[in-house]
Model the fold of this input.
Amino acid sequence: MSITAKIDVEEYRWNNGGTYLLNGWAVSSQPGRVEVCLLGDGKVSLPCDTVVQARPDVKAARPDLAIRDDRIGFTVRLTALEQMFKNYHFLDVVLVLGEERKHLFTRKIEEMKKGYRDAALLYFLDVEKIIGDDVVLQGWVIDALRQERLSLLDEKRQPISCEIKRVCRNDVTKSWGEEDGYLCGFKIKLPRESLEGEKLILHMENDILTKDYTINLKRLDYENSKRGKIAKVLARKNLAKNRKIIQKSGFGGFMDYVREEVSTEEEKYAYWLKKHSASPKELKKQRKTTFPSMPLVSIVVPLYNTPVQYLKELIDSVLAQSYQNWELCLADGSTKAGLGEFIRKTYGGEKRIRYRKLEKNEGIAGNTNAAIRMASGEYLMFSDHDDLLAKEAVFEIVKALNEHPETDIVYTDEDLVDQTGKVYSSPRFKPDFNLDFLRSINYICHIFVIRKSLAFEAGLVRAEFDGAQDHEFILRCCERTKRIVHVPKILYHWRAHEGSTAGNQDSKRYAIDAGRRALEEHYQRMGYDAEVEYTGVFIVFRTFFKPKGTPLVSVIIPNKDQSETLDQCLRSIFEKTDYPNYEIVIVENNSTEEKTFAYYEKIQREHENVRVLRWEKGFNYSAINNFGVRHAKGEYLLFLNNDVEVITPSWMSRMVGYCQREDVGAVGAKLYYPDDTIQHGGVVVGIGWFAGHVQSFLRRVDNGYFGRLIAEQDISAVTGACMMVERAVFEEAGGFEEKLAVALNDVDLCLKIREKDHLIVFDPGTELYHYESKSRGNEDSPKKRERFKKEIRLFRERWKDVLDKGDPYYNPNLTLCYGDCSIRREHEVPEVYQELFGGEK
Done:
């Protein structure tokens, strides 16, 4: 037998009348692709859906198999399983290649029924830890019958009284093919001191079966203790890693690493926040500071049945401001009495606090406008009625206004604070002004400060958009000015509780419709013909800019041999692309296999819009693409690797729509590895101390940091593996830099385009697979390594100012060591740079 195969996943699902799923790989020493056949009673071929996938991991791990084409993976789905159970006694899984057949395994129907029955209740725990004084359990349960009987028991199987909060888990519903909005997720939080015994039992049941998951409290206590965490860091399996840290950072650096590893996320962030907040000494100095301009800042707050304790904490945070020239405008639309009396009694002597009881509740928009009309300051600063300001918040904003006197709008970073007002978490480190990101999600949110005259010019807050009124207002304001400044500091603490959207994304579902309408009207005012769709993630939208006409797109693909890989790419273009007017320009460079040239002849005969050009010189990615552009006929240039596969039928239409905007110079796509993890979600200039991909290796269903992986956004650069540029813009920028033969040429082009005042857009709605190996190193030979170092040096010299200032679309508080958007550490040195250059910078 020449066929070798392995099944990695065998699953049952309760959809489509029951689904049986197999995922694995099969390869033969003979040419051709191995087919997977499912046979009822060993005779009847059952109709199933098969998706072929690349498996570079197998190719790398099994060199003995001499795999030529890594598209050896498969996912097979057999639906209508319940009907099959009635018709057959067993199922054979058989591999077929020409006349060759290999029996893989047999499943008896009774055996399959048991597996299917077990799948009626699926679960997984993501979080099982002690946070502070509480035991926290988070995960998901998919109940095929939707009976949702979930409870927590003690070790005597007695019910424990606690709240089990059910939440949406879009990552889970997408992965398992469940309907959007299904509340399969759960969160449980209860005091550790309230629990007795050594274990808890998470009990799940429906009318078909029951399942239990046991939580060992003794183990949980140890794992979450300092001692347990230190033991984990110092475990034998981490010995090599720890030695490397000591060699690189010294014993002191290793101790810092251990200290960070044993701290909880809350402890890490609390330490960071304390270190980056103004100290008492700094606050004292700020109070004595006199700026050239000392504008009155009106802090406008709409009130509505605000809990007195929350209001007190907000007002006290305003009174603690180190900058003193402010006024607090409180417009009260409450239906309950008491707030006015509390304010007069507690703060009656403070003239800067202005309170007005409204005749009626006018809704969030009307109440906000009432507070605005109370304001006498030059600038308006917006705050919710239950949140907190950092003590230096107004000072930092006025400082920014003095540094940039022409500024119309200022916004800052923020985090969440719990109901006690003491525990801070989830910092929102934002980019500098990013219009396309703002269109996808209201990332500006808090703090938002605007010149009062501009707010009135824009028309204040509109009640018909309640639920998304702040997003709609900010969009209108930003349409009227480009003088927008971002202060990258945590100056606002957003209260997370059940009544707020910070604590419960489902508490204001009406906001989705309002947000969609806000964007639609924004695009109408801007003159764009655009369609807005909700992503399913609160409250993130996606836009399709409809192309004007069908201008010719030239798809430029460099290629050397790998005819199977190229064929996969081209077939996906021909079969899935809905855009009608494109040509494909293949730039042949130094192929040696006869079958490659035979394939070129074949594909040109079959498709009249395909041309093959010959590049006679050595490999130089930049020169090859520039050569392709000179022979291309299109108004738009789509640079494409030969190892990609189209997923989104509208991919080319979406890219043309973006490129036709006058402010856009280039657009890039969201690319996945074959295992549905992220290969490309945009490029950050400065990662690794040159440039790198951000959010790589996360799952396809992940939203990414601050929604980066699902939200359209302006970005410094995108990969040339799939990038569209208008020809006029490409020529204006001077094309690809041919001194950068292999590395960073796409990033260099994007930065040259940005120098010409064009935007680079990352569009996550344009999706492709990229069959680049995850395990591929930076360079695999001394010669290539030296070339890579040379190109990095050239890039760093050319773009020194950009690197020194930092990527405007990446917050300076985030790490440059990795693309994971974690908080930047002190004295960090990226490993990739350290390996290449040692201590040189």
Q: What stands out?
A: DSSP finds 26 helices and 38 strands in the chain.
